[in-house]
Structure formats: C-alpha cells, structure tokens
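TA notes, week 10

Several of you asked for a full example with nothing omitted. So below is the full record: structure tokens for the whole chain, then the designed sequence directly under it. When grading your own attempts, check the secondary structure regions first.
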C-alpha cells in the first residue's frame, strides 16, 4: 500500500525504464517530488567562449553556445525493512547506465524527455528512518533542450511530378455543327515533392530524414533556414539513406557510407513554427520517398 497518494500534478520520472514514483516489484514505494529536483525545467547557461569554434559541417563561429543540463534528483524509498529497501536500491543501480539513457518526464499535462548520462558523482543513499531511505542521483545531458510530446512529428513525400491526366477525345465530339464540341477532361494528380510540418516547441529540433530508392543523387532542402543536404549516391529499389542532424550520422542501408557521398553538408534543424522540406533528385523511379521526423524541442 502506497504511503503517498498519487498526485498527477507532481513530477513523474522514469530513468532507463525504471519508474521513480510508485511501488516497485519488492513492495517498496519510491517517492520523488518536483521540489526535490533541479535542472529539468531550469534554463541553461552558455560557454561564454568567444574563440573560434569549428563545427563538424565545416562552418565555424565565435559566439557563445548553450551548455547542456546538470540534473539533480532526490527522493525516498520507504515502506519496507532495511534489507528490502537496499534490494530495491540495488535494482535501480543495475538499471542506471554510465552511458546514454533516456529520462522521461511528466508534470501534469507536460511530457518531455532527454538523453542523459550518470554524472561524475556517485548515486547516494542515507537512512531517513527504520523503513525509509533518502536517495540522490546526478545526471548530465549534453543537450540544452528537452524533447516533447508522445510521438514524433513526421511526414513523407515522393519526388515532385504529375501523374496521369488526359483529354478525350483530343479534338472533341461535334454536335449540330463544327463549332460545338464536347470533351471529357481527366485531371492529372500532382505530387508536390514537399512536406510541411509544424513545430509547437520553442527551440530548434534535430531532424531525422530517410530517403528510399530508387533514386539518383537526391537532395533535401529546408525552409526557413535555406540549407540543403545533397548526396552523390544511387539507391536501388529497397535501398535507403538516413541522416540525423542531431548525431550528424549518415548511413546507407544502416551502414556508414563511402567518402564523397555527401556533396552538400548543410545540416538543418526544425524551427519553431512552420517547416517545409523539399525533395529533389537527378533521377527517381516509382517508390522514391522522403520521410522526415523530429521531436518538438523546448529550452
């Protein structure tokens, strides 16, 4: 039986699939409160650096950039004998990774997530009573942004083209005179070759794109940034290329591509508001498709 009533307006955290609120499989209650966390909804600092900073796309800047997030979480384990409390704490430590893991956050109707690592400091516990432990953990996120929503914003399109369309018969049917004509008009179907997606976040968000063949030398441009990613590659039917502006990773059929595959490396991010992604190529067959996905981002 839980000692604390569930409060849907308080913070609810899940770290690498381990729920830090509620009763676990040992019957131990975990309780974490918004007032005992920091670094989640706080703002972020900057590096204050005015030195030349070279980015992986070859561009450079000498302006400050945002730093990541340092997150502190404190809470309680309670409602069981000391040995059971320790067993639950050890189960949590077994799920806590040194490397990347996802921290899911819910506060009322707000849902966010971010990728974190364990901080340099060790997770700590101390006695807070015969059947209660006080725990504290530190986490670090290299990104200043929280990603929001239950699902990614996503869309897809094929290369811009027209399909079908005809006038039958070409010279028309004649009724009662040569100047009276009748025709059937079958309008063509147009594929725009562009995807329009809205981000309701307040910060730029990394974009993941996938290009499915058959297509030769495809390009993807983004508005409003005006930036373009272009590739010197021919993808057959069933082959695909992916590019992630968050990790700066490009793959072909899940593997790193050969050198020279990228001819225009202008990484872009989904901006708050309307985003338009345009798909073009030197040549493309039926089935050539662009898919774009991103999470809304919040600072």
């Amino acid at each position: 039986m839980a000692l604390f009533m569930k409060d849907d307006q308080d913070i609810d955290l899940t770290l690498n699939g381990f729920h830090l609120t509620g009763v676990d499989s040992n019957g131990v209650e975990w309780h974490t409160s918004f007032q005992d966390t920091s670094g989640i909804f706080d703002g972020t600092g900057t590096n204050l650096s005015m030195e030349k900073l070279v980015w992986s796309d070859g561009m450079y800047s000498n302006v400050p950039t945002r730093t990541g997030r340092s997150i502190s979480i404190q809470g309680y384990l309670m409602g069981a004998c000391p040995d059971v409390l320790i067993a639950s704490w050890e189960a949590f430590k077994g799920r806590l990774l040194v490397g990347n893991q996802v921290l899911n956050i819910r506060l009322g109707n707000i849902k966010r997530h971010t990728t974190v690592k364990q901080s340099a400091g060790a997770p700590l516990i101390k006695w807070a009573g015969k059947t209660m432990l006080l725990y504290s953990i530190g986490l670090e996120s290299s990104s200043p942004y929280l990603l929001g929503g239950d699902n990614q914003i996503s869309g897809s399109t094929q290369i811009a083209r027209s399909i079908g369309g005809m006038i039958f018969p070409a010279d028309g049917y004649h009724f009662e005179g040569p100047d009276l004509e009748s025709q059937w008009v079958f309008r063509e179907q147009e594929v725009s070759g562009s995807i329009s997606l809205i981000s309701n976040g307040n910060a730029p968000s990394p974009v993941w794109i996938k290009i499915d063949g058959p297509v030769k030398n495809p390009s993807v441009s983004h508005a409003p940034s005006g930036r373009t990613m272009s590739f010197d590659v021919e993808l057959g039917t069933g082959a695909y290329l992916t590019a992630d502006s968050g990790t700066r990773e490009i793959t072909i059929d899940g593997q790193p591509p050969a050198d020279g595959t990228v001819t225009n490396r202008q990484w872009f991010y989904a901006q708050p508001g309307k985003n338009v992604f345009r798909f073009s190529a030197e040549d493309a067959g039926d089935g050539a498709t662009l898919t774009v996905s991103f999470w809304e981002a919040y600072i």
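The helical segments are 82-95. Use that as a sanity check on your answer.
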